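As agreed, record passed on underneath.
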Amino acid sequence: MILSDPELIRYGRQILCRGWGEKGQERIKGATVFIAGVGGLGGPVSLYLAAAGVGRLRISDNGQVELSNLNRQVLYNEHDVHASKVVSAREFLARVNPYVAVEPLGERITPDRIASLVGDAAIIIDCLDNFETRYTLNEYAVLRKLPFVHAGVEGLTGQITFISPPETPCLRCIIPEAPPPQKVFPIVGSTAGVIGCLEAHEVLKFLTGIGTLLKGKLMIWDGLESEFHKIDIDKDPHCPVCGKD
């Protein structure tokens, strides 16, 4: 993927980063990324991947914008209330970077539809708030050996890991059982912003091939104490998704 002169100017500062270079930027331009959910996490993820020049973003969300979303879902404003999230997000991202193709997928992620939704994406990003669909993403990632960035937030805390089947533990290894569902959970917008930016950061490192990914690590951010903690995680040999049993 050859970069145009305007793109070389637009992305010039990140191209200067050690190990990135024009080749790294060309890999980013040629990449397709699947973003599951364009809410509190998916907003900063899609925003910063678009700004960085990822060639194609496949954004999936069957929801509509609600007034209660606006404390954390940065792609939307009051004029978008009751509108399709993916359609509004595409319009926003087109203004951020016209060189990026955004494909809005306004349907629910299910086991029988996930292959069509993910398409030819090189990586899956979990920006969801329910574990049933997260487990669907996880199973598909393991089946197809696709990299899968998982993150979750609540209140002033968040977590993130980079799952790389079959090398690393999968989501079922880390969280074997889904926590009880919550219709409403506490969340501060800046928490979603911090963790969403970290997800985008992991994706950019993966696409350019630089840095160390959070493989086999669960990184937890305690926003109350402004502290990061990394926990080593191991594969479960009895995992129903990626185990050997």
Remarks:
- The domain at 31-232 is CATH 3.40.50.720 (Rossmann fold).
- The mean pLDDT is 97.
